[in-house]
Amino acid sequence: MPRRFPDRLVSAGRPRSSRRLRAALLLLPALLLLALAAPVAAWSALGHKLVGALAQRHLTPAAQREVDRLLAGEPDPTLAGVATWADTLRDRDPARFKATSRWHYVKFDDGGCQYAQARQCPDGQCVVGAIQAQQAILADRGQPDEARRDALKFLVHFVGDAHQPLHASALEDKGGNDYQVSLATRMEPEAYARNRYTDGVMGTNLHSVWDYYVLGEAGLSLEDYAAKLDARPWPPRREPLSAPDWAAESCRLVDSERLYPTRRGKPVHAFAGADYSLKHRALAERRIREAGYRLAELLNQTLAQTP
Fold first, then answer.
1. Contact (CB, 8 A) for 277 and 213
2. Per-residue pLDDT tens for 45-99?
3. Alpha-carbon gap, residue 21 to 100, rounded angstroms
4. How far apart are CA 218 and CA 203, in angstroms?
5. Alpha helix (H) residue ranges in the chain
6. Closest CA to 42 of 224, 288, 289
7. Facing residues of 131 across strands?
8. At CB < 8 A and 24+ separation, what contacts does 251-255 make?
C-alpha cells in the first residue's frame, strides 16, 4: 500500500505554505503544480502487470500451454510476473538495458502522428521495431527456448509501452521527461517517499506523473483490479493488431486528450486543477485494457502453431 503522508503537508489539495510555493514558482517558471489528493500507483509497475494479467485471461489453451512452458522456472511464471523484466535490466544487466533502451518508445515527427519506418524507426531501434522483431523470434520454433522466453518477456512489456501515450509523442521534450511539474499529493509510492518533498511539493516531470500518479485504485489487489477492468462493458478497440497503429493511436491521444496541462507543452505560471489524475485515469485504464487484449491476440496468433 502507498504510504500516507501527514495531513500537515497538504490542505485541501494544496500545501499550507503557499507563500513559499509562489516564490518557488516565480523562481522556477517551468514548474506547474498538480495537486493530486487521490491514491497513486505506478503505471511503470502496476500498469505493465495489469496488461499481463488481462492478456493471460484471454489466451487460448494452445497459447497458454506455450506461455507456461516458456516461463517455467521464472520466480512468477505469469505474464504479469514478467511484465517489468525489461525495466529491471537497468539494475540486473546494465549493458543489455543500454542496448535495448530505445526499444521502449518511438518519436514521431512534430505536427504529425503518421508512422513511417524510414523516419521513425529506420534501424528498428524503437518500440514498434522491437515488438515486430521480438514477435518474429517468439514465433520461430527453431530459436532456443531462452531467446523465445526473453522475446515473450519483452513483448509483454513493449505492448504496454506502445499504449502509454507519452511513449509515442511528437513533442520535443523526450516524452514529457523535460516538462517539469511540481506535484503535491497526500499519497506516494514507497520508492518515491524519501527526500523528495519540500513543503509538501515534489519536483518531477509529466512522464513520471503518468508513470506513477494517474493509474491506480486504493484497496484492490492486482488480480482484483484486472478483474474489475475486464468486467467493464466492451469493447474498446481490439483492432488493429499492428504495432505501428498502436503507437500512432498513442501519439494522437497526447493532443486529443490534452495530456499537457498547458498548450502544446508550454510551461506557464499557473496551478493546474487538483483533478488531473482523476481526469486522465479513465484514459489510462482504457489503454491498459486495449494493451492487454491486443497482447492476448498477438500471443494467440503467434503461438497458435506451437506444439
1. yes
2. 999 999 999 999 999 999 999 999 999 999 999 999 999 999 999 899 999 999 9
3. 39
4. 24
5. 18-27, 48-56, 61-71, 85-92, 94-100, 117-120, 127-139, 145-162, 206-212, 222-230, 243-256, 276-302
6. 288
7. none
8. 251/108, 251/113, 251/165, 251/168, 251/169, 251/170, 252/113, 253/165, 253/283, 253/287, 254/165, 254/166, 254/168, 254/169, 254/170, 254/171
- Whole-angstrom Cα distance, residue 201 to residue 21? 8
Cell 504529425 locates to 112
Q: Is the pTM of this model over 0.90?
A: no
CB 203 within 8 A of CB 33: no
Question: Which amino acid, residue 186?
Answer: R
Output the furthest CA–CA distance in the chain (Å, rounded): 67
Q: How far apart are CA 83 and CA 55, in angstroms?
A: 11
Lookup result for grid cell 479513465: 282
- Among 17, 90, 19, 33, which Cα is nearest to 262's? 33
Strand 201-205 to 180-185 pairing: antiparallel
- Domains in the chain, ordered, with CATH? 1-307 (1.10.575.10)
